[in-house]
C-alpha cells in the first residue's frame, strides 16, 4: 500500500461504484415512492384505522427496502479499480485503498468461470496477482481481504497470491476494456486467461 498517492493522470479507471449507484438509486427512489403511495392515499381519501395499519406496514416494508438499497450503494460510491504505470489500484473509498506495484509482481492474469446457464455469456472473473518471492498472509488490513491460498493449477502461478474478484455487473458493463487495460499494463507479466470450476470464486473474494 502506498499512502498519500493518486493514480497517474493517464491511468485507466473503472468507477464501478458510481456506475452501480446510478443504476440502483432509481430503484430506491421507486421503492420509496411506492411505500408512500398508500399512506398518501389514506390521507387524501380519509380511510379508516384498518387501512392505516396496513398502510404503515406497507410503508415500513418498502421504505426499509429503499433505505437498504441506497445505503448499500452509497457506502461503495467511490469504489474504483485503476491501472497505471505504478500498478493496480483497488480503491474502496477516499481513505481506504490498496496499491500493488507492477514491480512487486512476477505474474498477473485472469481466472474466470461461467455464471448461470452456459449459453448466458455471463462470467465471474478474478484478477490474480502473484508477488515476487511469494506472499505471506499480509498484516496490512487493506491487503488482507485480497490474500488467498488456493491451488492455482497453472504453471508459474503460486498457490498463495492476491485476488481481486470482479462481479458480473462489472464485467457486463466494462467488458473487454477492463481485461485489456490489465493485460496491456501488466505487459510481460501477463500469464493469460484460464477457466476455473464454477465454485472457485467465493462471495468474499468479490470486491463489491
Give me the secondary-structure topology.
Layout: E1 12-14, H1 16-45, H2 49-75, E2 80-83, E3 87-91, E4 97-101, E5 105-114, E6 123-131, E7 147-149, E8 160-166, H3 168-174, H4 176-186, E9 190-195
Parallel strand pairs: 5-9
Antiparallel strand pairs: 1-2, 2-3, 3-4, 5-6, 6-8, 7-8
Helix pairs in contact: 1-2
Keywords for this structure?
four-stranded antiparallel sheet; alpha+beta
Characterise this structure.
The chain has about 210 residues and is an alpha+beta fold. It has four helices and nine strands. A hairpin with a 5-residue loop joins strand 3 (about 85-90) and strand 4 (about 95-100). Helix 1 (about 15-45) runs antiparallel to helix 2. The longest helix has 30 residues, at about 15-45. The model has no long low-confidence stretch (mean pLDDT about 85).
What's this entry about, in short?
This protein has 208 residues and is of the alpha+beta class. 36% of the residues lie in helices and 25% in strands.
Q: Report how far the terminal alpha carbons are from each other.
A: 19 Å
Number of helices: 4
| Count of distinct strands | 9
Low-confidence stretches: none
Shape: elongated
Computed over alpha carbons, the radius of gyration is 22 Å
Mean pLDDT: 83
Largest sheet: 5 strands, mixed
Report the order of strands and helices: EHHEEEEEEEHHE
Strand order of the largest sheet: 7-8-6-5-9
Q: Please bin the fraction of helical residues.
A: 25-40%
Strand-pairing-aware structural class: alpha+beta
- What percent strand? 25-35%
